[in-house]
Structures
1.
Amino acid sequence: MRPKEFAALMALLEDPDVEVYNPISKKLILEGLPLVSLLEKAWENSTNELLQVRIEDILHQIQLRNAKQNILDWTESGATNLLEGALYIAKYQYPDLEYEVIDSHINKIKQKVWLEFNESLTALEKVKVLNHILYGVCGFTGNVDNFFDPNNHHINTLIETKKGGPVVMSILYSIVAQRLGMPVFGVSLPKNFLLAYEDRYGQSTEDKNEQRSVLFYINPFNRGAVLGKKEIEQFLTQNSIDHKDEYFKACSNITTISQLIASLMLSYQKVGNTNIVDDLRMLLDIVVTSKSIR
């Protein structure tokens, strides 16, 4: 969009008549991300309260529209890249996030772990090394002091602050593990989220729908504590939850991102931000619809 055209549209946005405002706002929203910096500058330079409110709404709509498209593209492409899915959720609040920056941070963690590995390590020994690097060296920890902080569910703030919630910490842990060749995947439990270390040699995988058996479970929110099936059963019993097979098996990336969005929604509900909850519900609907189709 040319500067003169943008300036003319900004002048029209000051018109209190909604009949004038509505078509202008739709045009700006359709232009999308390329206008974000211009809109932000226009907001900063304006003293017109009505114009500022309208710019804020347009920026929000552009951000939401972009987030919905990103999530839709991710699910339709197969949802194979878990980091990409987590990043798209974070970009709803942090639109300037770059995949390459977060990816680079994760690769540095992976490299630190890899330097401590050798071919003779067992699965449990590999987990102990990974735990040492993640929690001992890098200083990651579950944010128990401010559990309902929405930032607990953003992959970028986890990298920056070293604190996060159960789902996003599980996402980081599993990404690092998988880059090291470890078959570690999410397990979606009611009221919790864990990881399963699958037995890659335990059974045939010729059938793509067939799931491997699980050697043990990992709780990234609790410094990578290793759990057995009995501990999962005890947790379900204590919380009066039926023992469904799905609670003992690895879940898909689609389910993992669904749980990440649900956790984020709960945090915003706790802080009373219903507008963002409504937006996140739209994103969740996109993911859940994709899950139901598959």
Note: The longest strand covers residues 192-198.
2.
Amino acid sequence: MNLELLALQVRERINQLKTEQIGLRSFIQSDQALWEALEKAIQELTWVLNKLEAEED
């Protein structure tokens, strides 16, 4: 698997998590821990994506 394909897959997963986070906003407001867990996952995947894209250059 090349870095470009992996970066694409990570970017797609970030978008999926963001969509899930937005869709659950009203429910998550009462469950801050779940909101924070989703936010952390998005941040970690964004970090991985940035590293992958830096390797491509």
Note: The chain has a mean pLDDT of 87.
3.
Amino acid sequence: MISVRPNAAFTRSGVSRLALAAALAAVLGACAQQPRPDVTGSIPSAPAGMSESAWRKQAESLADRYQKEPGNVSVAIAYARALRETGQRSQAAAVLQQTSIRNPKDKTVLGAYGRALADAGRFSEAFDILGKAHTPDQPDWRILNAQGAVLDQLGRHAEAQRYYQTALGIEPNDPSVLSNLGLSYALSKNLDRAEEALRKAAADPRAEPKVRQNLGVVLALRSKFEEAERVTSGVLPPDQARSNVAYVRELMREPAAPSKSNKLQKTASAG
């Protein structure tokens, strides 16, 4: 999840970065528990919607294989993903670091390692590694998307948006890229363009449920509360959708006290 530094109090006519971060934390709070697609092609493949207990069993099984076959790239990537899915982010990065040392030119390994570093909050390192996972003459739109997400984490939103646009030039209308672009626009306080990008992403049948949640955040930040509730109720239980929208409404009604700002920043960073 995107983390930002607390900013000045906001009014009805403007939304602070703190408000956006807190809203993202509220609406996307469950994102850490949701399986993320691994575009590096981990082996063995993992069914969508695996439970945490299933991921833990897979991690235990793959740990044995990794110990026996430390040079097996597919096993290492699969093991690292299972570790990430069970919250063992630093260990996942360590596994892929060793794999990248053994395979310094393997772009699949470097891509997985860069994502693992980002997942562990090591954003500057992640950006450097991801830059080695593809080349200007053979750009990978998935890597460009990941680089954009890292730049957003670093607060470099204008640069991030250029990476997303380049990715869309290779893979037009991809909903995951459009969703990231929309959130980046929102962090830049450009809610018009944020809504436009997220509506387009959410309308794509390939879009994951979290894309509609992201759209709901931006709609709520634009005071379109009823529509935000309708959009998110399709992917969240109705009571949770109402609760999330009410939370954003409350954020927009009252300036955050310094103590609350620190708490919200911590919450946003933990996702």
Note: Residues 1-18, 22-46, 256-271 have pLDDT under 50 and may be disordered.
4.
Amino acid sequence: MPDNPFAINGDRNLLEEWLVSKRNKGTRREYAKELKKFFLSVCNQEPTATLVIQFLEMDRHSATTVVLRYKAELMDLELKEASVNRSIAAIKSLVNYAYKVGKCDWTLADIKSEKVKPYRDTTGIAPDAFKKMLAVPDRDTLKGKRDYALLRLLWANALRREEVSQCNIEDLDLESRVLSILGKGRGTQKENVDLQPKTCQAIQDWLLCRRELDIKQPLFISLRPHYGHRLTGDAIRKIVVAMALDAGISKTISPHKIRHSSVTAALNVTGGDVRSVQKLSRHADLNTLMIYDDNRAKAQGKITALLEDLV
């Protein structure tokens, strides 16, 4: 019998094994953070092997009650439905993993997710406003070349920040103008996105100035205080926020807002061709893209105007 009764493989405990089972590093970070918040709330301690075992050894009804009370606390804080669901999903995922490996004889399947409201503001900013952001980076400097290439890539391909963060130099084929990315919900299967000349030129300028010979290195890196570290999704967000402020844009801008902007602009220039724009946005559900199109076209306002004119 090992000293650590929670051990499964070597010196790793169940909590660690569960986190390792998550392919996406971002998911691991978020789930670890949510579990920490849960145990701090219900036990006033950070999760340990002993605490997790005690939780898993509870009977199903008691455990469900604890989690439901925690969920109620989150809702009392008026968190968004998606935030509440993420917290509960982390706990359910841990329990499901323990159930599969025989460390728990119940699940939390009876606890349902909150209904998430669809996107409300999908407009982002207009192309003219984005041009002001493109004018911010000093393209005579290494930082300026990096930031300009980031903006070009985010806009023209409507990429998510984590998709950009995870790219290595080897994922880029400038000759074929293709970038291989790990798309959201695609597991470890990479997909190719086509690049256009302005984006390719911006990335090439950045790489030539950077002079990195190892193609296994990240496509985008930090420059200070630790040169060479992969730009995280949050670092990319901070760069975008800073450039938006420097451009004098009052609206809060993030990489995802740029994605909203790109998708909306694409719908505008294609006259609402959602099938074609879906190739750009890579939304699995066309209904999500229809929300963008409805917001762009102001469908509700137009129908309201027609009704008002009837009486």
Note: The mean pLDDT is 88.
